[in-house]
Amino acid sequence: MSIPVIALVGVLLRYLTDAQLLTTAEPFVGHWVPRTGPGIIAALLILAAVVRYGRGLATRLPWRTLLLTSSAATAAWAVALAALISWDDVVAPVRGEHEYLPVVPIVTADPAGFLGGFADDLPGYPIHVRGHPPGLVLLLALLDRLGLGGPGWAAALFILAGASAVPAVLITLRTLGRIRSTGPFDSRSAEDAARAVVPVLVLAPAALWVATSADAFFAGVLAWGVALLALTSDPERHGVPRWTCAVAAGLLLGACPLLSYGLLHMGLIALAPLILSRRVGATVVAGVVAVGVVVAAGLAGFWVWDGIAATHAVWEPVGQTRPYLYFLFVDLAVLGAIAGPAAVGGLARLRRTDAVTRVVVGLALAAALSGALLGFERGEVERIWLPVAYWVIPAAVGLRASRGSPAGAPTDDAPAGPAPLPASWLWAQGGVAVLLNTILESPW
User: Fold this and answer.
1) How far apart are CA 153 and CA 91, in angstroms?
2) Nearest alpha-carbon partner for 212 in 266, 166, 154
């Protein structure tokens, strides 16, 4: 009910005041335009397949196969939603004049000059470049030099990275659950909980903005940074040395503030491994490496705080025209919308979930709330919230019904642990995505 109320308040503000809102589809950016096309068939088929087979596959597939399958299914779901009218709709957002690609030729010609003069030259760049650090443009320029330039490759990068956030979240939940376990049954329960949320992660309405926005790439980078940090404390880790994981986590987490300033406060999620494992060493190593990445960028010509100051100067006039209190509610409502009804329903039962889920979801909510309360985000958050949305969705595990013995212990004639999520929640999760896709025309 909050979204219709916010939309009504938006209409009143638009006609009764001089407040600058978004477009005509508050709380979202875009326009309410009923539309459909051949892509709706693919989306409905994927939705039906995930509801019918997803829960069983999530239970039975080998763990590594499940990780790959969950990422592929998320990418397919995102692409099916994006290609509602035609395949060109998948790439069209990347080609926009306000996006990153128009700057790539400048960066390719002189990357050092671009980096060193970024803060000073900011007002002359496209809108999305003005609102972000230079990291993504530099990456796209590097891909261009490698022969992987253009909107098609950029769209593939964003979608694949965004879809990979799902297995990264699953790895984090399972790993931290094993760290907190006191025996084989607890360890198995941690994996069961992670497996249970696979279908709702795949079907999340957030997929509407995974294809195709750069924030999907940011979501993937942050998610894998957190996952690698969790793996440093995994008691059953095989193959990869602990400190290698810590260094890799530091590199990814250090790249976050060079990709999006919003990832600075969203990085609160990276505290989950420290809080749950209480193992300081690996976190310190990752932190030192992350700071080293930021300092290295500064020595190369771009200091993050200079970029924040320049961006604030550019966007401050816009922020002053957007009413703070209204957008505080808008931002939180949109987070609930893109996380999906299963996540929102699970939040009401968060106390019934395990400690890992409570900590991870709590940190994600704290990260989003801090950004909204401090006014860092005032609208346009359906894409900005992607890095935190996939960490809120595991709250849906609280919707599972218990089965087995009353004490929760396994019996000979009943499977151990709670049951999968009811199919009705999966229909609702995917149904909201399909509904929004057919009535909301978004620029991303």
Assistant:
1) 9
2) 154
Q: CA 206 to CA 437: how far, in whole Å?
A: 11
CB 33 within 8 A of CB 85: no
- Chain centre distance of CA 49: 23
Is residue 39 within 8 A of residue 79, CB to CB? The reply is no
Instruction: State pLDDT tens for residues 289-328.
Output: 999 999 999 999 999 999 998 888 876 655 556 777 878 8
Give the model confidence (pLDDT) of 82-125 as tens digits: 999 888 999 999 998 889 999 999 999 999 999 999 988 888 89
Contact 224, 259 (CB under 8 A): no
Q: Where are the domains of the chain?
A: 2-398+421-441
CA distance 304 to 310: 10
Residues of the chain falling short of pLDDT 70: 1-23, 180-188, 235-240, 315-321, 401-418
CB 391 within 8 A of CB 360: yes
pTM (2 decimals)?
A: 0.91
Query: Alpha-carbon distance 252 to 439, whole Å?
Result: 36
Cβ pair 207, 430 in contact under 8 A: no
Q: What angle do CA 142, 244, 188 make, to 5 degrees?
A: 115
How many angstroms separate the Cα of 60 from the Cα of each of 15, 195, 394, 424? 55, 9, 19, 21
| Residue appearing with tokens 């922020």 | 319
C-alpha 334/C-alpha 339 separation (Å) is 8
Cis peptide before 151 (omega within 30 of 0): no
For residues 395, 4, 383, 340, the Cα torsion angle rounded to the nearest 10 degrees is 20
Amino acid symbol at 443: P
Residue 400 per-residue DSSP state: P
CB 429 within 8 A of CB 204: yes
The residue type found at 98 is H
Question: In angstroms, what CA-CA distances link 397 with 157, 173, 195, 199?
Answer: 30, 11, 10, 11
| C-alpha–C-alpha distance, residues 222 and 156, integer Å | 18
